[in-house]
Amino acid sequence: MKDKDNEFFVIKGLGGKKTLSGEIAVNGAKNEALPAMAASLLFRGELAISNVPEIEDIARMGELLEGIGMKVEREGSNTVITPGKNISSTIPDAISKRFRASIVATGPLLARTGKVSFPHPGGCVIGARPIDLFLEGYKKMGASVEETDHAYEIQAPKGLVGAEIFFRNQSVTATETFIMAAVLANGKTVLRNAALEPEVEHLAKYLKICGAKIKGEGTPTIEITGTKLLSSRGEKYAIIPDRIEAASFLLLSALAGKDVTVTHCVPEHLGALLEALEYSGIKMEIGKTSVRVLGERYKNGDIMPMNIKTHEYPGFPTDIQAPMTVFLTQASGESIVFETIFEGRLNYAAELIRMGANILPMDTNRIIIKGQTPLSGKNLESPDIRAGLAYIIAGIISEGETVIHNIYLIDRGYAKIEERLRSIGVKIERRSHEA
Ligand code: EPU
Predict the structure, then answer these.
(1) Which of 62, 136, 246, 414 is paired with 144 by a 20 to 30 Å CA distance?
(2) Considering only CA atoms, which residue is closest to atom 35 of ligand 1?
(3) Ligand 1 atom at shortest distance from the alpha carbon of 128
(4) Ligand 1: which residue has its CA nearest to atom 29?
(5) Measured in angstroms, how far is the CA atom of residue 295 from the centroid of ligand 1?
């Protein structure tokens, strides 16, 4: 096996030229596939999931589920998960610490077995990422919560009970976790200020097909009435296209495309970004499941600067904030990017400054970007999944060569990204120190 830590990307920049062309397809959404796999704990028999991206975080979720006694079979983008005879309530430390989404397994596991023990989850360093909403929610559902030096021990020996839960912050994984926990609880649970993200809504819709009683998914108030273990009734769970991946490809195409079509996406889920691209002067043809980005732009070929404020869905996603900043370095004038969801999610900007961007921090959550500035290739270290992709985009539009290290953090979220980018003309290679 290749040592992932030794791999890096080498990108030959286009020096601002717009030459990319062809089609690039979007994979299934990481952030739906992860809770979908955890949802297998709610099932009596097997759960078959399709359009699962072949990425590192999915491999980790597979290992987590196997670690507690589930059988996980993966073949390409298909995954089948079957409950084992003995399901353990202890989520293994080593795996949980590698990705934040491990937290979504705690809800269905607690609901199924009456207890769960897990360490503080790891994941991208983009802010404090507390789990208070989870611990408080479990208490409201009648569980005892004990925190030891290295683990949380949650117990509900008689099962969880339905509760009223108002989320102080809208949280994607907390909403998913409590929908799943409530499916096997006794009585009715009402979630208020629930997340509206399409991944959450689609998860609930699939669980309903399998027997769950859920109302209001896709709205801020979700009602779940507890029931028994679910059955897929032969219906596969097809993961929706990854709107973050689609958005990143669109930003790249808007910067460096002659004529690129992003396929297998849901434009309806991309509202905030499409509006921003339109405003900035990018010419697009929006289809039912694709978006074509044409090389020419409105307004003299300049990109209009703009102010962006990240927001829960349907607002501008925090996960495309970093690629958007790269885009705005090429706008003619001053833009402000305001990150409102995570407090540590602008740190990547320092490297863009080294590449030639004119970015001024206003405070920990806001930066001013003055464009247009040409970028030049540099040696970079990927700081997290999404900023890693932003660096790839920056490398592609730069003059000269960019080398990106720490690409495990890009592989966590994007499958074979270099092969797919090469298909539209990007000069990118994966190399390894041993090669
Ligand atoms: N929050 C709390 N307490 C909690 C949980 C969350 O205060 O117990 C706060 C967070 O600190 C943050 C806000 O709530 O300020 C929203 O965070 P959320 O819980 O929604 O984030 P998440 O569920 O941990 C998911 C995605 C992230 C994405 C965010 C926001 C998954 C697996 N992860 O994280 O995706 O950035 O929602 O949309 O769904 C990524 O894919 O690279 C990624 C980081």
Answers:
(1) 62
(2) 319
(3) 11
(4) 172
(5) 35
Dist. CA 302–CA 300, nearest whole Å = 5
pLDDT tens-digit profile of 114-139? Answer: 999 998 887 666 566 789 999 999 99
Q: Name the pTM for this structure.
A: 0.96
Residue 425 DSSP SS3: coil
Residues 6+ apart with CB under 8 A from 290: 261, 262, 263, 264, 265, 267
Longest CA–CA separation in the chain, Å: 68
- The more confident residue out of 130 and 76 is 76
Q: What are 246's two structure tokens?
A: 């689609």
292-339 pLDDT tens trace: 999 888 777 899 999 999 999 999 999 999 999 999 999 999 999 999
Q: Which residues line ligand 1 (CB under 6 A)?
A: 30-31, 34, 100-101, 124, 127, 129-134, 169, 171-174, 318-319, 341-342, 385-386, 413
User: Known catalytic residues?
Assistant: 124
What are the DSSP calls for 150-195, one per residue?
Answer: S-EEEE-TT--B--EEE-SS--HHHHHHHHHHHHTSBSEEEEES--
Minimum CA distance residue for ligand 1 atom 2: 130
- CA-CA distance, 242 to 229, in Å (whole number)? 28
Question: Could you give the CA distance from residue 407 to residue 417 in angstroms, rounded to a whole number?
Answer: 11
CA separation for the pair 182, 223 (Å, rounded):
9
Q: What is the pLDDT of residues 369-428, one digit of tens each?
A: 999 999 999 999 999 999 999 999 999 999 999 999 999 999 999 999 999 999 999 999
Q: Position of tokens 């990109």?
A: 303
Which residue, judged by its Cα, is nearest atom 11 of ligand 1?
129
